[in-house]
Amino acid sequence: MQTIEAKKWIRKFKDNPNSTVRLVVLPHAGGNANFYKDLIQYLSPDIECIIIQYPGRQERLIEDMVDNIDDYADKVTNVLNLIDGEKPTILFGHSMGALIAYNMLYRNGHKLTSIEKLVVSCHTPPIRKGSGGTINLMITQ
């Protein structure tokens, strides 16, 4: 993925050049970056907030939507890897965003070295066929 293409995926409503932590928000299935815009006012000034804008939403409405979670996980992983720096990162996913976040770490955790925490809401833990239960996504430091 090229840098220009990656920029389509990223929404930042406030620049925080002195931030020490990055929060990456993965919206729900029908959601878009604007849904989480008000969240920024409640964050510490030390936190840079990046909200993922999926294709097929808002100004990306004419683009084809991604049709499976694994592709979303791979594409968002590529986008995050193009962001400069190794700033400690918190990955937050809500509903479908939670499933994407789980899959990002399951499939590509070795590429996402700056992610220190995973926070999810409104989705049950994933179960993989043949895994014998839930996946342990513990991020070790």
Helix amount, in percent?
Answer: 10-25%
CATH architecture: 3-Layer(aba) Sandwich
Task: Briefly note the structural class of the backbone.
Answer: alpha/beta
Number of strands: 7
Query: What Rg, in angstroms, do the CA atoms define?
Result: 15 Å
Q: Low-confidence segments, ≥5 residues, pLDDT <50? A: none
DSSP helical segment count = 3
CATH homologous superfamily descriptor = Alpha/Beta hydrolase fold, catalytic domain
* Binned strand content: 15-25%
Strand order of the largest sheet: 1-3-2-4-5
Mean of pLDDT: 87
Write the H/E string, N to C: HEEEHEHEEE
Query: How is the biggest beta sheet arranged?
Result: 5 strands, mixed
Could you say what the CATH topology is called? Answer: Rossmann fold
Distance between the termini: 28 Å
Plain-language structure description:
- This protein has 141 residues and is α/β, with parallel strands linked by helices.
- It has a single domain (3-134), classed as Alpha/Beta hydrolase fold, catalytic domain (Rossmann fold).
- The protein has helices spanning 3-7, 69-82, 96-108, and strands at 10-11, 21-26, 47-52, 89-94, 115-121, 127-128, 133-134.
- It has a 5-stranded mixed sheet. Strands 6-7 form a two-stranded antiparallel sheet.
- Strand 6 (127-128) and strand 7 form a beta hairpin.
- Helix 2 (69-82) crosses helix 3.
- The radius of gyration is 15 Å and the shape is globular.
